[in-house]
Design a protein that fits this description.
single chain, alpha/beta, Cobalt-precorrin-4 Transmethylase, domain 1, Rossmann fold, 3 domains, four-stranded parallel beta sheet, about 20% strand, binds FE3-S4 cluster, EC 1.17.7.4, metal-binding, iron, metal ion binding
Length: about 280
Amino acid sequence: MEVILADYLGFCYGVKRAIKIARENASADGTACTLGPIIHNPQMVDRLRREGVGSVDRLEEMEKGTVIIRSHGVGPAVYDEAKARGLEVVDATCPHVKKAQLSAKELVDEGYSVVIIGEKEHPEVKSIFEWSSGKAQIIETEDEAEAVEPCGKLGIVCQTTFSGARFRQIVMRLLEKSRDIRILRTICTATDQRQAAAIDLASKVDLMLVIGGKNSANTTRLAQLCSEKCLTYHIETAAELQDEWFDKIKKIGITAGASTPDWIIKEVYKKCQNR
Ligand code: F3S
């Protein structure tokens, strides 16, 4: 059986950076915590907890210590609240997300009506929205773009992990909404690279294994794209592999979401090779 890894897979730059920052701020007394899980991967969150980086859902849960802002970022009010509570703030927001947040703020400050193209419930999109002082409109479909009111000045920013192709389609619908449009294509290449590499591999193998948290939007998207090309299973760890999946399979492709640790990818790879 041949096992092939996608050309681009696993941790992206922003996630690697956030985990490094979290580890540098670990504390033996449990007072260093990320606000929300640092990444959408339960195994990594557990490992960090053992290393001295906890996770809280709300700042109220922390009486002292260091709050680590995860790569998805947060709105400005969270920084203010953390400081007001006497917490030290360590910012591990991905620089690409930071750029989208500050772009939204700048556009609002310059009098643009702002549209954020992205998933309404995604924490990163919520944070970009908060940096727009709650003034931006969030859309994620062409129909929603059609419904945007025409305006004098229109500024567009995008969720960093949004599909480049869908972004273009939606922007096309927005072009007629204003004569003064600023488009900030705040998409990060990590997502496009992983998606293109996954689709390419999925069209050459009999079975794709997509590794990553079941709650990870980018991993779920990879699994969906691969399933359009070949038989695909979305797994979190090697323990989920089942013998019957591999009947008559000659080539297996492996990819992983941007929040999937290397050690999990290696375990799955080895287990497939040893079949
Ligand atoms: Fe940053 Fe792109 Fe990763 S925005 S967190 S490098 S997917």
